[in-house]
């Protein structure tokens, strides 16, 4: 049993647990009971001996009467008070016992150590561990000056008690004190590995297989601050805040609790409440690390980067083991253009993570114990923590080697005399950057003097924009019924146990109307080979849409591709009115030009010769502003070594490869020279460090008139590439022959490089749109497991804030490995919803993580997102047909790419989803039949296709705003469209119900990439329109 679960040492005379099976003897029998104990009447027998004998003989009433008589004579008799308190405690009357002990304070000269330690034991029995910690501190201060053994024992007990009640900063100070004295225990040393977490934390008690140690239970902590820290570390932030609000919660009145409240508010992204909290507590809590963590996150939300850096350095000065703070510091240094400092903090954070992993293995006593212990020692040395290192070494040396122990003791004594050794860990964590390098005074002054409620940096909720979920959508897999028979094969072997990283990526999907008949056709990627040299046994496939039914036309259209294909981009690269195909592969990417007669021709030879690439997502868009579509190519990592199979660990389990073990590949873009040829440009490391690209989106994010490129990277910082202003005095790629531009990476500055946790995520799918109806372009990104999705909402000044936590998407997405994700207003309540396909990249069920995962649906209300499944809707046991229709949502998959299209022209967007383990699904949106409100909602839609005249024909970057019943709805024409996909090139709008019985017509405003602005009036709902740039007439398409 752990030290913090125990009492105050050996108390053989105290029955810590009274036996309830033995009823107390009535007090009126006490006199006769005493009389029977004639041997106790002797003057030589002390009061204590008499009471001990009576208690041992189960004569508690007699003992109580005897003590009562003594206290009547002398109420201040310390021994009698102690024995009475002990007696009451053993009888189960802890409150009465405590009342007796509270008559004397630790400073009272008559109070004995024994008496004061009994009070501690009583407080713990009452689960008042914070009060017990205060009592222990009083004893140490008043009664241990001459007793080193007692002081050490009480310090160990104080550390355990502080851990239990959540006062971790104070507990760490005790553990550091013991480490410097060379007397720290194993548990105390492990608690110093991560000082800001509860001890033991959920992370520390989680085994490699994902299960938790039997000690992993919140009962290890007191209600109040102790449980709050446990819940916080377990990701249950609202539960943590609730614990701090308990009126009698232990530790809730301490500075630690007040500081921790701010940290929770920061995690919950409660910006306004946090601002008030910061103003109220700045002076009182500036010595608490939790205060500086909260302040760092607040300044980051406010885009006050220098102030955030100042707060981060302050926090690391107090606690150099806080990995979250180190991660914040790394991102902030990059944002502030201090790349070397950013690299240092990034490396330091990795060292901290490796140290935590080794400590967990040592703590749980798992396999590789000795190797992990050696790793732990090495890491502690590298992190500048010599006293912890010496203590760990001491614990590994047997008493039979006193010479080694003496040597270690001499080293410890020598280190104590060195001031640099005492400050080494904090200096290492800060990289010796002086805290005053960055100032926060101006920002503090502005915060404190601002009048009224603090204005949040994020336009998180537009006024009066809130709606309930109207109904649960019906999305039914109709792929087989409509002839879309396709299944992605990542290999001829189909071996999930040894699946390579490139095979786990899945196949892409592209939607295009290749024959220009007005119906969306589909191109689906295929693998089934060992790249890059071998050709696949099965080609990628083109399906022609024949009025809502699909037919394979790959061979007749000459659109076959036998490479190991990944992402698919569709667009009119030569501006002839027919969409072309740009196909990513492991090897050489291909360009298939649409001949306009139902066939394609291979135009790959128009590219400049280049080495093989591991390409992922592609996009077709005008990047240099010449009204010709260029190409963007995202690359994962260098092709050499890309095809390695997973290896077995010491337990014989295949372990997933990591992209961080490979050199990331540089992304490239290709300038359209207008004659069918292309000029290759590589995004250099000076602009953006190579980043294992996965998802890509291109559009005019900020209304600047030029397209930007967002690249979601796997376990490396994301990129946001923006065209830099021309500088005639600088020799760049801007010469007319290359048609190039200079890009700058603004991801760090704009808040898109990483999510709210301050670390790179495994970014896969990307959904786009105006999520909070403020007229600005937003992003939602699906991430790896234990990484909640990102919900990047754009602020007024063009920066982004990740508000997944505030909007309720943190917990449901955290356990998932998300891939394709799309935003569509499924219930037509006025707010975009999300559909996400999930599935792990590797079978890690041995570590407690699922392999196949369920798809998810998140319904937007304007203030949050509610996780729903179509199986929640009216499909009880008596409705068998409806259950069968919803079968897709009742299973788990290895989902990958996703694209949207309206394949049957019913005005509702459908979803095309590829998998590793299941045929491609076509989720038909059948939400608008049945109940009257569904039928009515089925009429409230509008679809718009754009064709550029002065702009390039696909009009990538165009912004369309629709005015409906006094409300404005906004959408953008994008390229890339997320993970390995191209959506149908149509802007789809859905509208909420209004009181009017007749649907209103709508007005439309279009901001074209050329810079022109076009207004169109009285479009009717329930139709699709074609709009030509600059033409006043619109064309009503089917239906």
Short key terms for the protein model shown above:
Serine Threonine Protein Phosphatase 5, Tetratricopeptide repeat, 28 helices, five-stranded mixed beta sheet, 40 strands, coiled coil, alpha+beta, signal, Tetratricopeptide repeat protein, Methylamine Dehydrogenase, Chain H, 1039 residues, 4 domains, UnbV_ASPIC
Descriptive overview:
By secondary structure, this protein is an alpha+beta fold. Strands 6, 7, 8, 9, 10, 11, 14 and 15 form an 8-stranded antiparallel β-sheet that branches. The longest helix has 26 residues, at 339-364. The chain starts with 29 loop residues before the first helix and ends with a strand. The model is unreliable at 1-40, 451-464, 727-737 and 872-881 (pLDDT under 50). Residues 126-153 form a coiled coil.
Secondary structure layout plus pairing:
Layout lengths: L29 H7 L10 H10 L3 H14 L4 H13 L3 H8 L11 H13 L3 H15 L4 H17 L3 H13 L5 H6 L33 H9 L3 H8 L10 H13 L3 H15 L3 H13 L3 H14 L4 H13 L3 H26 L4 H14 L3 H11 L5 H15 L2 H12 L10 H9 L25 E3 L31 E4 L8 E4 L16 E6 L2 E4 L1 H4 L7 E7 L8 E8 L2 E5 L5 E3 L10 E9 L8 E6 L11 E2 L5 E2 L12 E5 L5 E5 L10 E7 L8 E6 L5 E5 L19 E3 L1 H4 L15 E4 L8 E4 L8 E5 L5 E3 L7 H4 L4 E7 L8 E6 L17 E5 L4 E4 L11 H6 L9 E7 L8 E6 L5 E5 L6 H6 L3 E7 L11 E6 L2 E6 L2 E5 L1 E2 L4 E4 L11 E6 L5 E7 L3 E6 L5 E4 L2
Helix pairs in contact: 1-3, 2-3, 2-4, 3-4, 4-5, 4-6, 5-6, 6-7, 7-8, 8-9, 11-12, 12-13, 13-14, 13-15, 14-15, 15-16, 16-17, 16-22, 17-18, 18-19, 19-20, 20-21
User: Which geometry do the CA atoms define?
Assistant: elongated
Average pLDDT score: 87
CATH class of the largest domain: Mainly Beta
Largest sheet: 8 strands, antiparallel
How many discrete structural domains? 4
Low-confidence stretches: 1-40, 451-464, 727-737, 872-881
- The fourth-level CATH homologous superfamily of the largest domain is YVTN repeat-like/Quinoprotein amine dehydrogenase
Class from helix and strand fractions: alpha+beta
The value of Rg in angstroms is: 34 Å
What percentage of amino acids are in beta strands? 15-25%
Known CATH architecture of the largest domain: 7 Propeller
Summarize the amount of helix as a percent range. Answer: 25-40%
Number of strands: 40
N- to C-terminal separation? 72 Å
Number of helices: 28
The CATH topology of the largest domain, please? Answer: Methylamine Dehydrogenase, Chain H
């Amino acid at each position: 049993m752990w030290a913090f679960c125990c009492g105050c040492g050996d108390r053989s005379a105290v029955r810590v647990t009274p036996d309830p099976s033995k009823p107390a003897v009535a007090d009126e029998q006490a006199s006769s009971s005493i009389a029977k104990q004639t041997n106790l009447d002797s003057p030589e027998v002390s009061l204590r001996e008499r009471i001990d004998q009576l208690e041992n003989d189960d004569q508690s009433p007699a003992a109580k009467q005897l003590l009562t008589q003594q206290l009547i004579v002398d109420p201040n008799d310390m021994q009698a008070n102690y024995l009475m308190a002990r007696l009451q405690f053993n009888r189960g009357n802890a409150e009465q016992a405590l009342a007796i002990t509270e008559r004397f304070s630790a400073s009272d000269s008559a109070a004995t150590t024994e008496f004061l330690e009994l009070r501690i034991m009583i407080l713990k029995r009452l689960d008042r561990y914070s009060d017990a910690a205060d009592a222990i501190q009083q004893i140490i201060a008043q009664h241990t000056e001459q007793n080193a053994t007692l002081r050490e024992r009480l310090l160990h007990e104080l550390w355990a008690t502080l851990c239990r009640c959540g006062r971790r900063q104070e507990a760490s100070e005790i553990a550091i004190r013991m480490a410097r004295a060379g007397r720290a225990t194993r548990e105390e040393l492990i608690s110093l590995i991560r000082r800001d977490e509860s001890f033991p934390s959920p992370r520390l008690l989680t085994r490699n297989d994902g299960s938790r140690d039997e000690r992993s239970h919140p009962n290890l902590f007191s209600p109040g601050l102790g449980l709050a820290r446990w819940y916080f570390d377990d990701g249950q932030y609202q539960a943590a805040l609730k614990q701090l609000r308990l009126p009698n919660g232990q530790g809730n009145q301490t500075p630690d609790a007040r500081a921790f409240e701010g940290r929770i508010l920061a995690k919950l992204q409660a910006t306004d409440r946090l601002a008030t909290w910061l103003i109220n507590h700045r002076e009182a809590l500036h010595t608490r690390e939790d205060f500086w963590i909260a302040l760092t996150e607040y300044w980051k939300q406010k885009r006050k980067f220098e102030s955030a850096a100042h707060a981060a350095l302050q926090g690391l000065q107090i606690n150099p083991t806080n990995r979250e703070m180190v991660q914040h510091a790394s991102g902030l240094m990059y944002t502030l253009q201090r790349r070397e400092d950013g690299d240092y903090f990034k490396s330091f954070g990795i060292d901290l993570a490796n140290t935590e992993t080794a400590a967990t293995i040592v703590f749980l006593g798992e396999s590789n114990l000795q190797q992990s212990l050696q790793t732990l020692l090495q890491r502690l040395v590298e992190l500048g923590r010599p006293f912890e290192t010496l203590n760990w070494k001491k614990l590994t040396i047997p008493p039979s080697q006193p010479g080694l122990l003496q040597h270690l003791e001499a080293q410890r004594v020598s280190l104590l005399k060195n001031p640099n050794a005492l400050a080494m860990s904090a200096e290492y964590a800060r990289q010796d950057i002086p805290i005053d390098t960055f100032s926060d005074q101006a920002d503090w002054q502005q915060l404190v003097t601002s009048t009224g409620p603090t204005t949040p940096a994020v336009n998180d909720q537009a006024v009066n924009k809130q709606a309930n979920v109207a109904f649960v959508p019906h999305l039914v897999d109709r792929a087989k019924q409509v002839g879309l028979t396709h299944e992605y094969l990542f290999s001829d072997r189909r071996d999930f146990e040894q699946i390579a990283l490139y095979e786990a990526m899945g196949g892409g999907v592209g939607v295009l109307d290749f024959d220009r008949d007005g119906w969306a056709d589909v191109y689906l990627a295929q693998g089934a080979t060992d790249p890059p040299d071998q050709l696949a046994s099965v080609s990628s496939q083109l399906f022609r849409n024949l009025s809502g039914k699909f037919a394979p036309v790959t061979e007749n259209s000459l659109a076959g591709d036998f490479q190991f294909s990944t992402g698919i981009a569709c667009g009119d690269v030569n501006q002839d009115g027919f969409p072309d195909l740009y196909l990513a592969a492991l090897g050489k990417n291909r360009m298939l030009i649409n001949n306009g007669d139902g066939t394609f021709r291979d135009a790959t030879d128009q590219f400049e010769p280049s080495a093989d690439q591991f390409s992922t997502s592609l996009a077709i868009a005008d990047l240099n502003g010449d009204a010709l579509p260029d190409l963007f190519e995202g690359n994962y990592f260098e092709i050499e070594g890309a095809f390695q199979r997973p290896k077995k660990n010491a337990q014989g389990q295949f372990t997933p490869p990591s992209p961080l073990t490979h050199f990331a590949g540089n992304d490239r873009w290709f300038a359209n020279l207008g004659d069918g040829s292309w000029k290759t440009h590589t995004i250099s490391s000076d602009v953006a460090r190579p980043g294992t690209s996965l998802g890509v989106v291109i559009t005019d994010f900020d209304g600047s008139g030029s397209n930007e490129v967002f690249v979601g990277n796997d376990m490396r910082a994301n990129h946001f590439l923006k065209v830099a202003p021309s500088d005639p005095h600088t020799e760049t790629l801007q010469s007319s022959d290359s048609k190039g531009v200079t890009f700058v990476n603004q991801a760090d500055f704009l808040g898109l490089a990483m999510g709210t946790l301050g670390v790179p995520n495994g970014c896969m799918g990307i959904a786009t749109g105006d999520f909070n109806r403020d007229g600005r372009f937003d992003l939602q990104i699906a991430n790896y497991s234990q990484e909640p999705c990102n919900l990047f909402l754009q602020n007024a000044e063009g920066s982004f804030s990740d508000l997944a936590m505030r909007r309720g998407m943190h917990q449901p997405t955290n356990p998932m490995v998300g891939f394709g994700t799309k935003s569509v207003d499924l219930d037509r309540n006025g707010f975009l919803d999300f559909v996400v396909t999930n599935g792990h990249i590797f079978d890690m069920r041995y570590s407690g993580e699922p392999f196949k995962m369920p798809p998810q649906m998140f319904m937007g209300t304007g203030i949050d997102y509610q996780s729903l499944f179509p199986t929640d809707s009216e499909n009880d046991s008596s409705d068998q047909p409806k259950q069968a229709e919803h079968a897709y949502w009742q299973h788990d998959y290895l989902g990958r790419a996703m694209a949207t299209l309206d394949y049957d022209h019913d005005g509702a967007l459908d979803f095309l989803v590829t998998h590793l383990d299941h045929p491609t699904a076509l989720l038909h949106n059948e939400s608008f039949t049945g109940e009257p409100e569904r039928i009515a909602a089925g009429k409230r839609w509008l679809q718009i296709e754009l064709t550029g005249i002065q702009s390039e024909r696909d009009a990538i970057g165009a912004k369309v705003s629709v005015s409906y019943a006094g409300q404005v709805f906004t959408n953008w024409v994008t390229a890339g469209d997320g993970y390995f996909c191209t959506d149908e090139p149509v802007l789809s709008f859905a509208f909420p119900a209004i009181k009017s019985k007749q649907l209103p017509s709508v007005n439309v405003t279009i901001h074209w990439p050329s810079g022109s602005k076009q207004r169109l009036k009285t479009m009717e709902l329930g139709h699709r329109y074609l709009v030509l740039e600059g033409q006043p007439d619109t064309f009503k398409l089917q239906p």
